[in-house]
């Protein structure tokens, strides 16, 4: 059975609870489980071995034995070690040079270079107010230049046109010249995907690198890469002075292994991670948070940061007040759904919450909320404010208007009523604590209990 | 000496008359070197066949992405043989190992929808960057060589310039491409293409789809819709749903295969990018767990670098050693 790394580790540690202290004997099985879990998460074998050794040494240290719960002690050691291996803090891009700062994107075919190029440009434009020019040196893959051109249009970056008949080196030089003339701050060069064992293509890349003198050469790596991630990262960084790594497709369900091994083997910092298909889905890589996420302890910090930058604060406060007064209506509910979508939908939020991976979701998913939003959109303002007035004929109209069936409208109304009831309970003092106590039994280990 | 590995100097000079076997072997040479060179030196250096040696084999298999479960199965079997004193020398271990690997690939293969339907609709699915569009270009060529008429459907309406990319492949192969605008409904494009395929009497319609992560439930729903809609034209369509997997991928391939199979009943696999150092070992666990047969493997960037998959040949190529 394939299991997520976080689930695996949580399970292993569960077995430890009730033991007085960590000893060579009682952590043997746990460490074997950790080893298996790391391997299943595609962490490279040499890295796994070293990791296990470190954890073993530390677990048997005195400091740990004094700790109250051996399970939590082991989790902490594993977490610390993971964080340390991944680089401890986030390295930002270095753009301090005579403009234009040249960024070179490289990687295997299909790792996501072109999409990431556009995401990175957008990030620099929006967050640092940089003037960014994009150029494609991919003269090999059909329509690759067209792809970057389209993306460049979507994000309003300056586009440097190139043709499939040109030489990558010539395009690079011309693009940098043009960027200089136009006073661009940054020029990002997207290269063709290539195998690290393809000498000819690797030499071409080297030539481009020598001519372009990029201040950042970013290796784009698919987070789902297996044991080979190490070979790829090694080969590229041996030939090109790679300055950083971008991990893509981390919104899938494989997100541990590659990051850990690449980081360990190349000692290059992972600077960003791709978290979705849209052009704004690029996050700074925070090793400590990702380590926690791997361990199933959630990524609450990212969530909070996300919430702060993307959510409408006044709206949220208004909704909170309404909830307390029990005056929460359907248009507030719709607001909540929309806010949630801004944070990556239910799935996105859950993946960042501690232990949420193990919580039963009761069939809830993002499609359901999309449906609910459509249903609420088909209501009149009055219906949203006083859902009680929605009876037979209104239900039929709403269902038809939103492309749903009446039972689905009923389901929404029923759930909304339940929600209202729950909110009233919450708003009474003392109830919240009581409820948290009840929930505690169901929470996974590692969750701050209090 | 039992094994004598020649360091191949002529690796970069493929002859015109190269057979299928050697082409696959060449494509897999990186894998082979990784797995067999190490195993060979391992077995050669081994004075005694014992559990330490098996542990080393375990290490090599894990590093080839074979995965924990499949590796454990192999090691368990080898341990058993060792206890029964069947493994007396390195060669015996080698033979046992290749036997085990073939066995993993030889799980009862689901009989492929050998359909007489005309046109046969092949739906290509997979995550982003797996190599779907490129594989379609190669597959179209391959089918044409078998005397089939082919039509392509530009069903990736999401990624920028994906339609143009398929159109270039269409031009290269002289194959018509049915396409709509960027952002159009994928199901509508595939429906149109199948309809056109029926009207023109072509043999095979190959439909491209946008890459999607198997964890995105709404995108998986979109894929299900495609399979529902085409049934209106032919209740048996799509006749083949191909999951394209990147061989550089690790154990997540298993999860992908499972999710895609659940959503759209994937009934065949194509493994791409086996020409890197990627070890492709995940195939063993994959076939074992999902029972989906591998149809083709991509062993290079050229248009004819798509090869039919053959389990025996695959394992042989993987473990091949030159006797000298």
Brief sketch in words of this structure:
The complex is a heterodimer of chains A (450) and B (324). Chain A is α/β, with parallel strands linked by helices. Chain A contains 21 helices and eight strands.
Annotation keywords:
heterodimer; A: alpha/beta; 434 Repressor (Amino-terminal Domain); B: 324 residues; alpha/beta; Rossmann fold; 8 strands; 11% strand; elongated
CATH top level of the largest domain in chain A?
Alpha Beta
Widest β-sheet, arrangement of strands of chain A: 3-2-4-1-5-6-7-8
Q: In oligomeric terms, what are we looking at?
A: heterodimer
Shape of chain A: flat
Structural class of chain B: alpha/beta
Could you please describe the fold and organization of this structure?
The complex is a heterodimer of chains A (450) and B (324). With 450 residues, chain A is α/β, with parallel strands linked by helices. Chain A has 3 domains: 5-85, SRP54, nucleotide-binding domain (Four Helix Bundle (Hemerythrin (Met), subunit A)); 101-297, P-loop containing nucleotide triphosphate hydrolases (Rossmann fold), CATH 3.40.50; 305-440, 434 Repressor (Amino-terminal Domain) (Orthogonal Bundle). Chain A is 56% helix and 9% strand. Chain A contains 21 helices and 8 strands. Chain A has helices at 5-16, 24-40, 45-59, 62-65, 70-85, 113-128, 144-155, 168-182, 199-212, 229-239, 257-266, 287-294, 300-310, 313-325, 330-342, 345-352, 366-377, 381-385, 392-401, 406-427, 431-440; strands at 101-107, 132-136, 158-160, 186-190, 216-222, 244-248, 270-274, 282-284. In chain A, strands 3-2-4-1-5-6-7-8 form an 8-stranded mixed sheet, with helices on both faces. In chain A, helix 6 (113-128) runs parallel beside helix 7 (144-155) and helix 8 (168-182) runs parallel beside helix 9. The longest helix of chain A has 22 residues, at 406-427. Chain A is flat and about 70 Å long. Residues 439-450 of chain A have low confidence and may be disordered. With 324 residues, chain B is of the alpha/beta class. Chain B has 2 domains: 19-105, Four Helix Bundle (Hemerythrin (Met), subunit A), CATH 1.20.120.140; 120-266, Rossmann fold (3-Layer(aba) Sandwich). Helix content of chain B is 48%, strand content 11%. Chain B has helices spanning 20-27, 29-45, 51-63, 68-83, 90-105, 132-145, 162-173, 186-200, 217-230, 252-264, 282-290, 311-319, and strands at 120-125, 150-153, 177-178, 204-207, 240-246, 268-272, 294-298, 306-308. Chain B has an 8-stranded mixed sheet, with helices on both faces. In chain B, helix 10 links the parallel strand 5 and strand 6 (268-272). In chain B, helix 1 (20-27) crosses helix 12, helix 3 runs antiparallel to helix 4 and helix 10 (252-264) packs parallel to helix 11 (282-290). The termini of chain B are close together.
């Amino acid at each position: 059975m394939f299991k997520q790394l976080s689930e695996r580790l949580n399970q292993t540690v569960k077995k430890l609870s009730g033991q007085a202290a960590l000893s060579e004997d009682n952590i043997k099985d746990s460490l074997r489980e950790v080893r298996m879990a790391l391997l299943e998460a595609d962490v490279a074998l040499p890295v796994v071995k070293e990791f296990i050794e470190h954890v073993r040494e530390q677990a048997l240290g005195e400091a740990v034995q004094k700790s109250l719960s051996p399970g939590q002690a082991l989790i902490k050691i594993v977490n610390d070690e993971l964080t340390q291996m991944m680089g401890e803090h986030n390295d930002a891009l270095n753009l301090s040079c005579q403009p234009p700062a040249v960024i070179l994107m490289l990687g295997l075919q299909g790792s996501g270079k072109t999409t990431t190029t556009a995401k990175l440009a957008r990030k620099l434009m929006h967050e640092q107010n940089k003037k960014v020019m994009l150029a494609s040196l991919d003269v090999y893959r059909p329509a690759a230049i067209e792809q970057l051109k389209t993306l460049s249009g979507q994000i309003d970056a300056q586009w440097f046109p190139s043709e499939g008949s040109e030489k990558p080196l010539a395009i690079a030089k011309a693009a940098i010249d043009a960027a200089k003339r136009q006073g661009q701050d940054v020029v990002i060069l997207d290269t063709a995907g290539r195998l690290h064992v393809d000498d000819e293509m690797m030499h071409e890349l080297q030539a481009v690198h020598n001519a372009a003198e990029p201040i950042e050469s970013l290796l784009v790596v698919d987070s789902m890469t297996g044991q080979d991630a190490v070979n790829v990262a090694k080969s590229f960084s041996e030939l090109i002075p790679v300055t950083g790594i971008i991990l893509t497709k981390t919104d899938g369900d494989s997100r541990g292994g590659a990051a850990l091994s690449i980081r360990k083997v190349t000692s290059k910092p992972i600077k960003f991670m791709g978290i979705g298909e849209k052009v704004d889905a690029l996050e700074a890589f925070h090793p400590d948070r990702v380590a926690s996420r791997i361990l199933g302890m959630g990524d609450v910090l990212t969530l909070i940061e996300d919430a702060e930058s993307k959510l409408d604060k006044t709206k949220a406060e208004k909704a909170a007040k309404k909830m307390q007064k029990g005056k929460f209506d359907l248009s507030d509910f719709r607001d909540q759904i929309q806010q949630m979508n801004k944070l990556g939908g239910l799935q996105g939020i859950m993946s960042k919450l501690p232990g949420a991976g193990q919580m039963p979701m009761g069939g809830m998913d993002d499609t359901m909320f999309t449906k609910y939003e459509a249903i609420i959109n088909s209501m009149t303002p009055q219906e949203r404010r006083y859902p009680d007035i929605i009876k037979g004929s209104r239900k039929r109209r709403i269902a038809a208007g939103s492309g749903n069936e009446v039972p689905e409208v009923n389901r929404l109304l029923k759930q909304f009523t339940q929600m209202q009831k729950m909110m009233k309970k919450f708003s009474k003092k003392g109830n919240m604590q009581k409820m948290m106590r009840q929930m505690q039994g169901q929470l996974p280990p590692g969750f701050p209990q209090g | 000496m039992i094994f004598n590995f020649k360091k191949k100097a002529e690796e970069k000079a493929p002859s015109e008359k190269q057979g299928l076997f050697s082409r696959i072997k060449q494509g897999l040479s990186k894998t082979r070197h990784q797995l067999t060179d190490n195993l060979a030196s391992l077995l050669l250096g081994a004075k005694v066949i014992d559990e330490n040696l098996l542990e080393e084999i375990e290490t090599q298999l894990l590093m080839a992405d074979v995965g924990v479960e499949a590796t454990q199965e192999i090691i368990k079997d080898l341990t058993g043989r060792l206890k029964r004193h069947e493994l007396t020398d390195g060669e015996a271990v080698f033979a046992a190992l290749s036997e085990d690997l073939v066995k993993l690939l030889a799980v009862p293969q689901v009989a492929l929808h050998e359909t007489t339907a005309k046109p046969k609709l092949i739906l290509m699915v997979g995550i982003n960057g797996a190599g779907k569009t490129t594989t379609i270009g190669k597959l179209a060529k391959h089918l044409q060589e078998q005397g089939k008429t082919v039509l392509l459907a530009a069903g990736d309406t999401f990624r920028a310039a994906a339609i143009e990319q398929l159109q270039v492949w269409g031009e290269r192969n002289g194959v018509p491409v049915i396409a709509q605008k960027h952002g159009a409904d994928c199901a509508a494009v595939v429906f149109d293409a199948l309809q056109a395929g029926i009207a023109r009497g072509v043999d095979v319609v190959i439909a491209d789809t946008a890459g999607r992560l198997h964890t995105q439930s709404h995108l998986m729903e979109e894929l299900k819709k495609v399979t529902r809609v085409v049934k209106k034209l032919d209740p048996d369509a799509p006749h083949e749903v191909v999951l394209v997997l990147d061989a550089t991928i690790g154990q997540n391939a298993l999860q992908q295969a499972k999710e895609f199979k659940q959503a759209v009943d994937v009934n065949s696999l194509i493994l791409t990018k086996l020409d890197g150092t990627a070890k492709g070992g995940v195939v063993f666990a994959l076939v074992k767990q999902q029972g989906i047969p591998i149809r083709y493997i991509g062993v290079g960037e050229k248009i004819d670098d798509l090869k039919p998959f053959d389990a025996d040949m695959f394992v042989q190529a993987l473990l091949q050693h030159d006797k000298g």
